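so my prof wants the structure for this chain in the tokens format not the other one, which i didnt know existed until like an hour ago. anyway here's the sequence
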Amino acid sequence: MSLTLYYHPLASFCHKVLIALYENNTAFERRIINLGEPADRAELAAIWPLCRFPVLRDDARGRDVPETSIIIEYLDQHYPGGQDLLPDDPEVALEVRLWDRFFDHYVQEPMQAIVLARLNDIQCDLTSERTKLKTAYKMIEQRMATREWISGAEFSLADCAAAPALFYAATVLPFPEEYDALSGYFERLLARASVQRVLEEAKPYFPQYPFYDDIPERFL
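here's what i got, hopefully its the right format
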């Protein structure tokens, strides 16, 4: 098999790439990396010295591809399926890339800062991180008032980014009850077979998550 994904089933950024792979039924080998194991860490560092996952190895093309957005664009270009994750229209594609970066930087990053503080028992002021999430939620609520997907008419790279970002963010800062558009969008994401599969595979690892008690019962 040509493709191997180096990843961990609990990691939100890995979820983003898994969703893309499952959307198009792309065949790949799995290499679960436990960064706490020196041998696993060394194996990943040999491929990507920054030692961050996921990384996609393509033996057929002799390429190692890091970074989630680049991996998904690479798959869309070289291993396309029925679901185009980056539109052909350059203007729509630019918007997709914008919202992909939005979810990575303004939902994932503040969420992960809060999670890491809990994981490492760091006592610090996380007000700014929660404020960023509140601002992001408000922006998504406004955008989704008249839309089905975050960019364009179809599920895309940006929605692959949105699903894990919102899933984990909601455990550290629940969506405001009055944000019906945001909640409706989240439910549409959860209805995708690809997202359901990712969450089902993550389920055995959820007890390792610092905010495990805040994961809704329906996901456990």
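also thought this was worth mentioning. Helices lie at 12-23, 38-47, 68-78, 90-119, 127-143, 157-172, 180-191, 193-202.
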